[in-house]
Amino acid sequence: MLSKVLLRLGTNAARHPWRVIAAWLVAATLAVLAAVAFGGRPADSMTAPGLDSQRAAELIERAGTGQEGMTAHVVVTPLDGGATFFGDDGARTALTRLRAEVTRLPHVLGTSDPAGALDAGGDTAVRGGLVSADGRIAVVRVQYPDQSRLSAEDLDALVALGDRLRAELPLRVEMGGNLFYAFSDADGGLSELIGLLAAAAILFLAFGSLVAAALPIGMAVFGLTVGVATMTVLAGVTDVPTFAPVLGSMVGLGVGIDYALFVLARHREYLARGLDPQEAAGRAVATAGRPVVFAGGTVVVSILGMAVANVPFMTVGGLAVSIVVLTMVLASVTLLPAFLGVAGPRLGRAGRIVRALRAGRPGRSGRRRDTEAGAVPAAGWRRWIGHVSRHPVPYAVGAVGLLLTATLPVLGLRVGLPDDGSLPQSRTERRAYDLVAEGFGPGTNGPLVIAADPAGDPGVLDRLVATVAADPGIASVAPTHVDRATGIATLVVFPTTSPQDKATADTIARLRTEVLPAAIGPGPARAHVGGAAASLSDVGERTSQRLPVFVAAVLALSFLLLMLVFRSVLVPLKAVLLNLLSIGAAYGIMVAVFQWGWGGALIGLEATVPIVSFIPMFLFAILFGLSMDYEVFLLSRVREEYLRTGDNGTAIVEGVSGTARIITSAALIMVAVFLSFAVADDPSAKMFGLGLATAIFIDATVVRMVLVPATMTLLGRANWWLPGWLDRMLPRGPVGIDAADDTDLESTGGAPRPRLVDR
């Protein structure tokens, strides 16, 4: 049985703590050394098999034009406000030198030559999109090979060159392009520190002991070190997306400290009953460790389930985050009890400051009463849950109405990818974006690449260029490049709108469904629309199509697992529906903030942006797993009380109030950690941070403290109803709550344990 395995694991770790701590030190050291020796840096590859943009990339690669590779652009303007590249020889000379230096960088296949175009005539430079019509802004476009032949060192070399040239040339130098998108380091370090400090403060207030507060932090840091180092090794084997380290740190810190909090709270409860520290640690792992293992497994299964989207970078990103979560689960049931064994009986005592704060606050019997979290008395929570249980209908209706209202903005959800225009002005990519938009129009920041195979029809290309140029969503078409060996042609076209604009996605769709078929005709010729903007649009469409299937699969799996755990039909059904409500409300708030701009300034959002295409699926996977933490932890205690007393009302009040302070403390920690990432520069990090924080806050307050007691009161004894035929079909494995009775100290007092199974 799982509980017996966890009991032995926790007890042995507490009895031999230094062996376990040494093993984790060795594991962390080996993981870091492996990361240094074999690891790689994250890189984004927004492609997926079967997409039209992928077919375009395959055609371009076959032609060998080089346009299938990565690109960057260096945007310059004279520091002298009155100078232009048309008439200022100094500015033109500086531009020539800049291009020459960029061309000499490693792996650069070629660059555009705005100075050479100016020598041929100002009109040539303007028509080629290299110099703005007023002569103030010039662009050097840099062509690199395919991403598989590049690394973050190529981006570092370009950035270092830009830093040097800014000091040496009379030019303002800014940079951007998909080389930055693929290899830029994601935000994280400062956010992690802020999250840790906030978590430490909450833990100290919850436990009243510096030692007790330090243990979950120490465990989380150990686990995060091993998990992120392992992720780095994975990045040396395959492309790990740049959001994975940020998301892994965010989720790892949140769940790691949460899991430790659950176990530590039970440990202190057992210490208060007079058990020695080793036995208390073992029993804490056996009881609180079960929900930890179950919840962590649910998170991992949910995240790995994103493979149904058939988008490789999402699958790899999910695998990377799952590694961190699994590491935290393992640390919670091995490293933490070792820490508890070292700490000994000191964890049962609150610190002097917190004891002073609690003094004089009576419990139900008139004397001070500490809960298992060592916080203020639970009498207040008991009164609240009892109040909700006495008025279940208005509270249930009101809470559901509130969450449905918060969910309404989801109807306007638009997926896409925020472009560089959504970054803060402190980033060179944003400044380059603004200069390009000012000089050449917003669509120049997101060119489309049309790859065409004429299949021997000489008139196809002329028709293609004319038809594409006539489309109202296209601002200009660059000269066509035809590969002589294969006959494959590539057209670089510039939309009239920015990459993240919905009109750009409409233009891409119109090119594919109307413009290109009309130009090519019924013959064997074919054409596909590619480029970064098209790839991101395609990925967004695919994830939107696969999201319902993924959601249905996660809901079904969660229902079955909860039914096995609690031997009930209505409890898991209720849990699934309530989790959907909290996640839907989080989606709605994200739409209101990021698409509508409500309160965006509070998290440093400078412009409205679409929701990143892969974030809804990631958020659903993570949030559904995280909500299982609270669901299993809370309902386990309710189930224990029900088995002890046989009274549904008493079980709800005692079970929910007995876990309320732990759940709210855990939720506060998670919200603090996640919100610390919501102030990062990158819009994706902001969305992950705000979405996770909002959903956890709603789940731990409105759902767990209002809807759960209200709905369970309304259902009454039916909460634990299970048809006899289904009870006989379900396996009685080690995950059931009843399986832990022999390890828990709760006594039934000789009362028969009630069962609600229809025979």
From TrEMBL:
Keyword set, alphabetical order: Cell membrane, Membrane, Transmembrane, Transmembrane helix
One family name in Pfam for this protein: MMPL
Stretch list, region Disordered: 740-759
Superkingdom, natural source: Bacteria
Primary subcellular site in the record, as a coarse category: membrane
Annotated transmembrane regions: 21-40, 193-212, 219-237, 243-265, 292-313, 319-343, 393-417, 547-566, 578-598, 610-630, 651-675, 687-707
Boundaries of every Membrane transport protein MMPL domain copy: 46-394, 489-721
Protein's membrane topology: Multi-pass membrane protein
Protein's recorded name: MMPL family transporter
Top-level taxonomy: Bacteria, Bacillati, Actinomycetota, Actinomycetes, Kitasatosporales
